[in-house]
Each structure stands twice: as C-alpha cells, then as structure tokens.
C-alpha cells in the first residue's frame, strides 16, 4: 500500500508544479499531436435529423489511438518518482504500443505483459512494441488473455522491483478523472 500512497502524493505535487504541467502540455501538443482535430459529419448530421455530429479524430494521434494521452502523463510521473522500468498490460496491443512508444522516447526499460492468445491475434502490435524496444512477456495462465495478464501484473507489482512503475494498473483513477 505505501507505493499507492507515494504515487498519489507525487501526483498531487506534480499537478501543482508548473514545470511538470508545461512539459506534459508540450509533449501532448508536439509529440502526441493534440489537440485532436474535430471533423464535422454533414451527411450523418442530415441523416439524423439535424443534430450536429462531430468526430474527434484520436486515430490521428501518434500511435493511432487515445492510449498515448495517459501514457505520457503516467511515464512523466514515473520519471519524477525516479522509476526507470515501466511494466504494462495490454490486450489488443494499443496500450502496449503507447507505453513502449513513450518509454522509447525517454530511454526507459519497458516490459509489456500480454496473453499468449492475444499475442497470436495481434502480431502487428507485438511487432511495433518490440521494434520500440519493449520486452513482450507472454502470459500462458488461464485463457491466456487480458484477465490473466492483469493477474500476472498484479503479482509482479506486489513483488516489487526497485525503480518499477506499473503503468495503468496502479489505480491511477484519480489521474484519469482529472483528465476529464
């Protein structure tokens, strides 16, 4: 439990730190490609009776999804905490790719746990993670899918290795809520 308390304390301090916020905002704009463009859909608007329909184009972000937004903040926080090794879990691979991308940007060790069944289904994402320098660890327990990966990652988090932060799993609900 102390790790979670350390994480929360460091997050609250980072929120109040103008330099941290400036670096985060700069990375979102210049590295991720935010703000994501909005596209007005005139034909869909017309077909639905006039309610204006807009698409937020997060697929245009670096890595092709919204996952990188959280990863940037989480990894900046990990760096602030002195962490040098990031572990993450992924199912379809998007979170793993985003984590590996940001780790590569900052020269951090990245280990991504992924169900063996998902690895077989998501070969392009696995290729991208490895290309970015991540170690992809297959989880073969149970059905070898995301649920089993989360269990395995929770075990590693409990064991605790110095300098490691589990991206996404660390109950970062507070951080995500602040981003809304």
TrEMBL record:
Lineage: superkingdom: Bacteria
Q: List GO terms (cellular component aspect).
A: cytoplasm
Domain Tryptophan synthase beta chain-like PALP per the UniProt entry, residue ranges: 33-169
Q: Which cofactor does it need?
A: pyridoxal 5'-phosphate
What's one GO MF term for it? tryptophan synthase activity
Its pathway, per UniProt, is: Amino-acid biosynthesis; L-tryptophan biosynthesis; L-tryptophan from chorismate: step 5/5
As its record notes, the protein acts as a catalyst of:
(1S,2R)-1-C-(indol-3-yl)glycerol 3-phosphate + L-serine = D-glyceraldehyde 3-phosphate + L-tryptophan + H2O
Q: Supply the enzyme class, top level.
A: lyase
Q: What is its EC number?
A: 4.2.1.20
User: Which Pfam family is an annotated match for this chain, by its short name?
Assistant: PALP
PANTHER family given in the database record: TRYPTOPHAN SYNTHASE, TRYPTOPHAN SYNTHASE-RELATED
Q: How does it assemble?
A: Tetramer of two alpha and two beta chains.
- Protein name in the entry: tryptophan synthase
